[in-house]
Amino acid sequence: MERTPKLTPAETTKTDVVIIGAGPVGLFAVFQCGMAGLRCHVIDTLAQIGGQCTALYPEKPIYDIPGFPQISAADLITNLTAQARPFDPIYHLSQSVCALRKGRRSRWSLLTSAGQQFDAGAVIIAAGVGAFAPRRPPLDGIETYESLGPGRGVNYWVREREPYRGKRVVIAGGGDSAVDWALNLADLAKSVTLVHRRARFRAHEASLDQLRRAVDGAHIDLVVPYQLAGLIGGPDDLTAVIVEDLDGDSRHLPADVLLSFFGLSQKLGPINDWGLEIDKKRIGIDPTTAQTNLPGIYAIGDIAGYPHKQKLILTGFSEAAFAAEAAHGHIHPDRPLRFQHSTSKGVPVPTLVGRS
Amino acid sequence: MERTPKLTPAETTKTDVVIIGAGPVGLFAVFQCGMAGLRCHVIDTLAQIGGQCTALYPEKPIYDIPGFPQISAADLITNLTAQARPFDPIYHLSQSVCALRKGRRSRWSLLTSAGQQFDAGAVIIAAGVGAFAPRRPPLDGIETYESLGPGRGVNYWVREREPYRGKRVVIAGGGDSAVDWALNLADLAKSVTLVHRRARFRAHEASLDQLRRAVDGAHIDLVVPYQLAGLIGGPDDLTAVIVEDLDGDSRHLPADVLLSFFGLSQKLGPINDWGLEIDKKRIGIDPTTAQTNLPGIYAIGDIAGYPHKQKLILTGFSEAAFAAEAAHGHIHPDRPLRFQHSTSKGVPVPTLVGRS
């Protein structure tokens, strides 16, 4: 998906802010920057807006966004995109930032893998966990089964439920994704078998209660403590998953699809090389300005770290507000940002007159 | 509305957390505490939930809540109340906290003006600007006109637009409220006259553009620089507002209603007496734990202060998440709160199985 950077970029785009990452927090940063009068370009490695929300779990309900007792990840992204739209952000997708260098004065110069060059007053890094890939279980020939598509072979995430209808689904993993999807597909699939190498699951208490009821009601088969040992099938389909207990005794679980939930391996990639202070894959920031150790570079959302940091989308939103104000101060040190009460702000479209 | 505290309170209610203030931020604190397994009682001086959102501007659109390109203050409160509901908060309205004292061990003891007593593991102060009242312009006999109801006499806020239909409306003030309501009522009222003692308004740039267009289009009469000098009318109605320029020359503006927007006078009241560090009517907190100088007492939202604080509902929401985690640590120092990714949290209602 990524192209090699051109040696001689055609043109440099000058802008107030470049936002790295078009996930929910990056999108809300567009809105907050817009409210501060700053124009934004947004760069993302994925081919579409929304980060993990769109790529990994669009149908998953989210419960902890203030004001939404429940919202799907996809709907949240739709709303945030609409909220950012009045500020005319320009999205540059399917490319990553491969170089970030100090520019003239206190500006920054960026080069993307698609050969685009930017001259930015400030940079807001909202890159989540960085480029992410599912952790692949070490099974012989697993590659063969990875390309069969949703509901067939080996899948690492569920984008929609329908492809799993009537299928024999084996789910491997012990965390929230494994438990939630086992519950979620139980009424749709022909069978759901949940495999974990321990008897205990690391999932939310309410989900575990539901899991117990589903197992008691024979809606879900629990195969614990077992781990994945092999895959059986032809070139075009999976037929069974082999699992082994701790003594090496094995079982064959008939299966059309293995859903493997062993988390994501995270790669910060080039972000490591920009001179930012990084600890445990998090960029250190001042929590009330989102300022990194480099002036004019801000980090927000899951990629940002500070004491007591909570990895919630909500805290990322709040960090976006801090970053926008700080970026405004960096770009216009002589022009104070008038303090605005949240309820008295307007957006730059005529919505006040004549509304009912 | 407030009753004198009884000398011998009947019974003490024991709870994990008492939240002072049932505005948007206090409501979201119920949700965040609930997610951390903490039960909450919520106390508010107003007779209904929602704080200023409900009492002062229920119909006002808010633009900067993440995920809502636009939402009315009333709808936001409805949603937040629904989001808090699964955690069974108990609301104690029409009463204020008149005493807060150290209890046994590291707990806190509270007494309300209705004579209720609480024994709480932690206290979260989400009291906004404290008890609030509109600033009253110094006009002879103004009290007479204050009780005539919406759209008549002197009003300090607009709860709904309808009572202003066909009325001669004089609006006084130079901030967002004055400008926004002038624009908002222009198509509904018989006439809208905007009075300000300066020629310049302290309102959002986009609103000012609209104001200029509305004045040019003769939808709004601008009377500047003038200030309020008197009211003319009978016992049951206002007929005119007298204004004066800087030279003392006066004009009579025919009016059915004067909308007076000179801000709110804020009273922290008893909160001043609890030993909290307060600077400029804000309680000082650690921005990533919401911890005040008193262990087990947290402050969030507009009443909380720290360097670079932004007075947004959003930042209050984020502070609620910090406070809930810190309160959990204070109440259960031996029981770590399992880190939960925002999208894998569930609420304690069976919503996962069988959803479509």
Please tell me about this protein's structure.
Two copies of one chain form a homodimer. The first copy, chain A, has two domains: 12-131 and 265-345, 3-Layer(bba) Sandwich (FAD/NAD(P)-binding domain), CATH 3.50.50.60; 136-262, FAD/NAD(P)-binding domain, CATH 3.50.50.60. Chain A is 21% helix and 27% strand. Chain A has helices spanning 24-35, 51-55, 73-84, 142-146, 176-185, 205-216, 313-331; strands at 12-20, 40-43, 61-62, 71-72, 90-92, 97-102, 108-112, 117-125, 131-134, 153-155, 168-172, 191-195, 221-223, 227-233, 238-244, 250-254, 257-260, 264-267, 278-279, 282-284, 297-299, 304-305. In chain A, strands 1, 2, 5, 6, 7, 8 and 21 form a seven-stranded mixed beta sheet that branches. In chain A, a hairpin with an 8-residue loop joins strand 3 (61-62) and strand 4 (71-72). In chain A, helix 1 runs parallel beside helix 3 and helix 5 crosses helix 6 (205-216). The longest helix of chain A is centred in the last third of the chain and has 19 residues, at 313-331. Chain A is elongated, with a radius of gyration of 23 Å. The relative contact order of chain A is 0.16.
